[in-house]
Amino acid sequence: MTGEKRRTDALAEALALPILTQTLAEGQKMPSDAEICASHSVSRTVVREAFRILSGKGLIVARPRVGTLVAPRPTWALWDGDILQWLDNHNATGTSPYVDKWLADAMDIRLALEPSFAALAASRATPKANEALQLALRELQQVGTIAAEAAFLATLYDATDNDFAAYPQQLTGWSLRHRKTGAPLADYARVTAAIAQKDSATARQSALQALLGG
Length: 214
Known about the structure:
Shape: elongated
Distance between the termini: 37 Å
Largest sheet: 2 strands, antiparallel
Number of domains: 2
Number of strands: 2
Structural class: mainly alpha
Number of helices: 10
CATH superfamily of the largest domain: GntR ligand-binding domain-like
CATH topology of the largest domain: Four Helix Bundle (Hemerythrin (Met), subunit A)
Radius of gyration: 21 Å
Order of helices and strands: HHHEEHHHHHHH
Oligomer: single chain
CATH class of the largest domain: Mainly Alpha
Helix content: 55-70%
CATH architecture of the largest domain: Up-down Bundle
Strand content: under 5%
């Protein structure tokens, strides 16, 4: 990574955090290029690139004759991997109320989606998808890492044969990184078996139990 790219990424994170933590309110004007250059010791090129990153993530919006504003909250790409990592970095020195709130929100999303994904996989999974899920389960049982659990759930999502099911994976991985308990291996084994047996009801219930027990 070049020095300029590192500075751009660091500045994007520094400018995003006041937005994400609502120190800067929706509709509030961002500091000028000159102010940012002076306060962060960066060039205008770095500022423009950082703004481009934040705009792409829905955090800011440019208005003609007005300037660059904090974008409305519904446009924020909160499932974006960079944003989730920035939140973790912000939380590294203590407990952030924003991280706590969004972790609870992430669990709400998982409770709404994962049981339905499991049931859908039970009705749609191909033999190849079932084999991939069983291999992912065995890998998780052997190594027990968060990365292996995230890979198992990604394989479960893929087994739905729904192109949109891939989108929550980064949010799921972020949620797993903050969990205080181990992976619910027995529940995952029941989910995997139910999907192979095309038992949607059991797959749904086992996926729900995996979340509630974890």
